[in-house]
Amino acid sequence: MRNRIAGIAVRFPYFVYEEEGKVVGYCYAHLWKERAAYRHTLETTVYLAPGYEGKGIGRELMERLIEECRRDGYRALIACVTEGNVVSDALHLRLGFKKVSHFKKVGLKFGRWLDVVDYELLLS
Question: Does the keyword Ligase apply (predicted)?
Fold first, then answer.
C-alpha cells in the first residue's frame, strides 16, 4: 500500500487516517482523464474500513482533500460511486457534490455487473 500511496502522492493529494497505527481510511485525487483538456479535473476516491462509517472520518478526509484541490487550482472533482453504496452517496451529497450521470452495468466485481453513479463538485 505504501508504494501505491507514494506513486499517487507525488502528483496529487493523498490523505490517510490511522487509528492505533492501523489505516482505517484514506482518500486521494488522481487524473480523471489523461487528455490535456481535462487536466483541471480530478477524480476522487475515498475508503473506510468496515465499522468506521458514520464517525465523521470520511467527511474529515474528503474536506481536507477538497480544500487542497481547491488551493491547488483544480476546477472540478468527479466521484465515481458504485450504485447502492448509500454511505458514499450520502457523504458526497453532504459535501456538495451533485449527481451527474448513471452508467448501467459498466463494472464487474466478484462476478456481478455493477452500475456506477458519477458525482461532480465544481471548485471555482
Answer: no
Contact 33, 41 (CB under 8 A): yes
The contacts found for 57-60 with CB under 8 angstroms, 24 or more apart, are: 57/17, 57/24, 57/25, 58/25, 58/27, 58/87, 58/88, 58/91, 59/91, 59/94, 59/95, 60/17
Question: What does the pLDDT look like over 61-120, one tens digit per residue?
Answer: 999 999 999 999 999 999 999 999 999 999 999 999 999 999 999 999 999 999 999 999
CATH number of 2-122: 3.40.630.30
102-107's contacts with Cβ under 8 Å and 24+ in sequence apart are 107/82
Give the H or E element holding residue 58: helix 57-71
Would you state the torsion angle of the CA atoms of residues 79, 80, 86, 91, taken in this order, to the nearest 10 degrees?
-10
